[in-house]
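Async update (no meeting this week)

Hi team, since we skipped the sync, here's where things stand on the single-chain job. The sequence we agreed to prioritize is pasted below, unchanged from the tracker. I ran it this morning and attached the output directly underneath so nobody has to dig for it. Comments welcome in thread, and please keep replies under the output.
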Amino acid sequence: MLNGRFVTLREIRRSDLPAMHRELHSDVVTASLSNVDPWRPVSLARLEAEFDRALTEPESPQHVRFAVQERDDDAGELIGSCGLWQVDLHNGTGHVGIQLVSSVRGRGLGTDVVRVLCHYAFVVRGLHRLSLETLATNQAMRTAASRAGFLEEGRIREAAYLLGERVDEITFGLLRSEWRPDDVRE
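Output:
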């Protein structure tokens, strides 16, 4: 487990799947903000089948996912998911992504999740650079990225189609040399 000030990142458990389905996958807006593909309904049974199948497949070094829970929650209730994707071991780069359930948003937990992911990427995985892409309309993610030390590097105009409108995508970046490790607790 990886601990931040307010959150713990841990493995995704089969018992997390109902909450992931209800709070993250079935919420059209939340799912649309964090996926490049258009939202479509996915059954809990499908999530469970994918989870079970992944248990027997070799893990990909290019992708890692975590469940997010509040740090002091002994019950380990899922409040989100996060991970690194498109990890390039040769160049030492990766992309950050997070999703939080609506009931915990606005409490600074997203910033803490991003900071813990940076610790994992830079210290545990030895990466050199992280990228984070979000839509211009996702002010919470833009704030979390900035507070975690990411710098805005670019804007791709009208790159995304989100629920009926064209939206700019904003790219952030953070180098290992720019990262402030004192923001994370072990």
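Quick observations from my side:
The mean pLDDT is 91.
Helices lie at 17-25, 28-34, 44-54, 109-124, 139-147.
Reply here if anything looks off.
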